[in-house]
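Aim 2, interim progress: modelling of the pyridoxal-5'-phosphate-bound target.
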Amino acid sequence: MFAKDGKTKDVATPRICDVVWHNGKFIKWDDARVHVMSHVLHYGSSIFEGIRCYSTRQGPAVFRLREHMQRFLNSAKIYRMDHPWTLDDLCSASVDLVQQSEMEQCYIRPILFRSLDEEHPAFGVNPFPNPLACYIGAWDWGKYLGDEAIEKGVDVCVSTWNRLTPNSMPAMAKSGANYMNSQLIKMEALLNGFAEGIALDDRGYVSEGSGENIFVVSGGTVMTPPLSSSILAGITRDSVIQICEELGLTIKERSIQRAALYVADEAFFSGTAAEITPIRSVDRITVGNGGRGELTTKIQEAFFQITKGERPAPGDWLTYVNAAKPATADNNGHKVQEGSGASPSPVSGPGTEPALNYHAAGTD
Ligand SMILES: Cc1ncc(COP(=O)(O)O)c(C=O)c1O
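Predicted structure of the complex, ligand included:
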């Protein structure tokens, strides 16, 4: 384990796991390198995931691991990346990695990409001759939009850049190349003094932030754009929808006009990195009372309680990393033996199919 100075980065990175999972084995962080002529560097041929592992009283717990890995497999399928890894392989590799990292909380980054066969190099756009490489790394990541953002909210703009069109780059695949569009949105926002940019879809309806889904609250109804607005089917978005249902809030997937952002009572982002971040202004127009709204607060509280294992989740959302270890802690922090009934189990066990609907086109 070694510390890295996060001062020069936009997000604090206090620790990085010094091993990386690579094609089924653990290698040193320093050995996780690629050739500069790798296909991925030239043509953007990668798919990846971003997963958070939270600190709970029962030790580290990965949030919605199977759903993230199912999306990873779906992204690979869309890009015809024919690899040998199963859902169970990828989930247990992630759990092993967190165990090896000895971190209580971290961000997990699986990536699958087209590399270079140095003995039989291929340099064309055709990706098929290039071998696939799969890695999973982990680091401790701070609050994506800043420490204050979770409480006070962020000032954002509507981007001049549109989100991808469904038949150009599939937004439902989490591919590295999609993030060139995200970078345009993010850079423009930052250079104009905003924390984040919101992109519209090709029809002019609200799509999502550069790395987050978006929700608005109007007249007590929580609304979010449908998958047909070229959004990534966010796992935090799905969690928010399920939390709203559990809290008895009206939640609707529907097309949202840009102007609806300005007149909303509340707005917030959802995402693995950003978690639940309130939006306090859009294009310098104050949203609601310019702070964290009432329903945003309720949803955010429930979300963080669930991620900490302090509130039952609507589904099997937490994979306890130390569940397989013989001794662990119960809800009160007392050590208990496995099999005593008080020990946490890996609630998202092998064979459990993720509940998220990745295939739906979305409704307006
Ligand atoms: C473009 C984009 N939209 C939405 C999200 C939110 O998705 P999730 O909640 O699965 O992290 C992300 C983050 O991964 C993203 O990059």
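The radius of gyration is 20 Å. The longest strand covers residues 106-114.
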